[in-house]
Amino acid sequence: MTRALITGITGQDGLYLAELLHSKGYEVFGLVRGQNNPKFDMVQQLLPEVKLLTGDLTDVSSLTRVLNIAQPDEVYNLGAISFVAYSWENASLTTDVTAKGVLNILEATRLYAGNDISKVRFYQASSSEMYGKVQQVPQTEETLLWPRSPYGVAKVYGHYMTINYRESYGMHASSGILFNHESPRRGPEFVTRKVSRAVARIALGMQDDITLGNLDAKRDWGFAGDYVDAMWRMLQQPEGDDYVVATGETHSIEELLQVAFRVAGIENWRDYVKQDPRFMRPAEVDLLIGDPTKAQEKLGWTPTVGFEQLVEMMVNSDLAEQSALLKK
Ligand code: NDP
Ligand code: GDR
């Protein structure tokens, strides 16, 4: 039985990845941080077969302990402070977790492997935020990185450190440069879920409007369930490498609003949308569009869910969730 350790198992991607690996017959271990983390029970209920271990990416000794217990063949490092807006206000903490945390888990993994570095394969959750002020459209594995937030800078550090462990120690280490991916499990702080939830509540008469920041930014949005499959495929290759995972399509926040309101039967969406500088960022990433050719050719990966289908899935899920709340 192949054994996998997932950091960030309580997050959106961690849950989908744990489900995928379990369906493939893996024994799955997950790292959960903090004392009495309320998400511990949530994961346990959803995935009772997953073994949860406590530890923190900022604490190398906890990572060493967890690796020794889990004895993984594959390590997926998904843990991070992942909300870009938050990273300006908590830049040092973001650096400790999202940047230095990668070094901690890489080093703990190297020491766990001992004299046989081929014993373990490593995945790092890199991000399209590393492209920031984009230097090329669409973005590929070769595009110059120009991060625009403390989060983006931290991810660049983790990305190059992963490459460095591959080149220095021969570790099978891969970095997935994943563009935005969403789902009904997306945290409500991110724009797609903020919109899908608010649209559902507006349609049900539970809320009057939604307040957002920049409506012009463009993102290449895919479905999280598709993207965790790409992570797994990377670790099944003979060598570690870097891959862009994206749909190759980009849409603005305005388009997101238009489609989301339409799913809920509302055409005059502008009447329900307000803007507030509070949600604007000190530096914006204006246009992200990925070129997933390498992932398609080498991993045989293609996205299965398009933009409109994704928004529909999220709005319908929130309509069901909010209707259930109304009935309580
Ligand atoms: P989430 O924010 O949903 O999940 C982040 C996870 O990291 C949570 O499980 C969180 O735990 C955990 N975590 C936070 N701090 C620590 C810490 N100090 N030690 C251990 N674990 C910690 O992110 P996603 O699932 O959306 O993303 C997964 C990864 O992929 C992240 O690294 C993200 O930066 C990256 N990424 C995401 C993209 C996306 O569009 N979703 C695109 C590109 C990259 P807790 O629940 O306790 O807070
Ligand atoms: P992003 O996702 O920063 O791309 O990072 P987010 O959904 O937070 O923002 C996307 C775009 O929407 C604009 N926006 C708003 N965003 C939020 N959250 N709230 C608002 O009210 C709002 N109004 C407009 C933002 O300015 C931005 O342009 C996500 C995270 O998952 C990262 O961890 C990951 O690395 C990247 O995607 C790829």
Description:
This protein has helices spanning 12-23, 39-46, 60-70, 84-89, 91-113, 150-169, 191-203, 224-235, 253-263, 293-299, 307-327, and strands spanning 3-7, 27-32, 51-54, 74-77, 121-127, 172-178, 181-182, 210-212, 218-219, 222-223, 242-245, 251-252, 273-275. The protein is of the alpha/beta class. It folds into 2 domains: 3-181 and 221-245, Rossmann fold (3-Layer(aba) Sandwich); 187-219 and 250-284 and 305-327, UDP-galactose 4-epimerase, domain 1 (Alpha-Beta Complex), CATH 3.90.25. The protein has a 7-stranded parallel sheet with strand order 3-2-1-4-5-6-11, with helices on both faces. A two-stranded parallel sheet has the order 7-10. It has a two-stranded parallel sheet with strand order 8-13. Strand 1, helix 1 (12-23) and strand 2 form a beta-alpha-beta unit. It starts with a strand and ends with a helix. The mean pLDDT is 98. The chain binds NADPH dihydro-nicotinamide-adenine-dinucleotide phosphate and guanosine-5'-diphosphate-rhamnose. NADPH dihydro-nicotinamide-adenine-dinucleotide phosphate (NDP) is lined by residues 7-8, 10-14, 31, 33-34, 37, 39, 56-58, 78-82, 97, 125, 127, 178, 180-181, 187.
